[in-house]
Structures are given as structure tokens and as C-alpha cells.
Amino acid sequence: MDEQAKQRIAEIVTRVKGRRTQAQFAKALGVSPGTVRNWEDCISSPGLDGLTAIAEDSKQPLIELLAEILGEELFKRPQPKVAEEVLLQANLLNKKQRLRLIQLLVEDLADLLED
Q1: Given this model, what pLDDT does residue 75 score?
Q2: 68-96 per-residue burial string, b: 16 or more CB within 10 A, e: under 16
Q3: Are 69 and 5 in contact (CB under 8 A)?
Q4: 40 CB-side CA count, 13 A
Q5: pLDDT of residue 59
Q6: Within 13 A of 29's CA, how many CA atoms are on the CB side?
Q7: Would you give per-residue pLDDT tens digits along the chain (115 residues)?
Q8: Closest alpha carbon to 54 in 91, 15, 2
Q9: SS3 20
Q10: How many of the other CB atoms lie within 10 Å of CB of 34?
Q11: In degrees, to the nearest 5, what angle opens at C-alpha 4 toward C-alphas 72 and 14?
């Protein structure tokens, strides 16, 4: 885990802990106060169980917490750079949706040819 992710974890732990003491927060998570201190001081990072406990304590979905730690937008859509990348995504559609996509592309092509 890179240093930026560790720093974000420390900030998240501090934020979620709020006004509670490290001991109170640690008890709520089921870890030792020293563990919480190490997280806040970027000495160590929580594993999956610790992250799950932090997410539950903060009433935040784990996936959102992980995205925040990674510094990623959760619902960021990939931007295809070439038609082949679009085709790869299209191949994930079921047959009915793929046929609909072809229909839309043909209609779009007809519009382009009219211009």
C-alpha cells in the first residue's frame, strides 16, 4: 500500500473516530487502542476485517470506503480510446441489448450519411 493510501486511511480513521478516544473507538471496532494509534500514525494499515469494521462504524458501504482510500471515483466510467474498446464493452451485453446497440448504430450511421 502506498503512502498516500496510508495517509488517507489515517484521515478516515480520525474522522470516523470523531470525539471518541482511541480506546472507545478501538472497543467499537474490536481492536486494541494501539492498533488504532498505529493506523492514525500511518505505522500500519487495517486489513479487510478492520476496514469492514470501520465501514460499519461509519455506516458507509465498504466499497465506498475502499474507493476513498484508493483516491478513486466510485462511479467513474472508463473512457474508451478506440472502437475496439467499445466493442469489448458491447460484448458484455446480452443478445437483445447487443441487437439494440446495432440498431442504434445503424440509425446513427444513417444520420451521418444524410449530413
Answers
A1: 63
A2: bbeeeeeeeeeeeeeeeeeeeeeeeeeee
A3: yes
A4: 17
A5: 92
A6: 31
A7: 788 999 999 999 999 999 999 999 999 999 999 999 999 999 999 999 999 999 999 999 999 999 999 887 766 666 778 888 888 888 888 999 999 999 999 999 998 898 7
A8: 15
A9: coil
A10: 13
A11: 90
Q: Cα–Cα distance between 22 and 35 in angstroms, integer? A: 9
Helix axes 62-70, 48-58, angle to 10 degrees: 110
- DSSP 8-class letter at 74: T
Residue 71 and residue 8 in contact, taking contact as beta carbons nearer than 8 Å: yes
Whether residue 33 contacts residue 23, with contact meaning beta carbons closer than 8 Å, is answered with: yes
Residue 3 to residue 19: CA distance in whole angstroms: 25
Contacts of 80 by beta carbon, 8 Å cutoff, 6+ apart: 86, 89
User: Residue 107 corresponds to which amino acid?
Assistant: E
Q: Does the global pTM surpass 0.70?
A: no
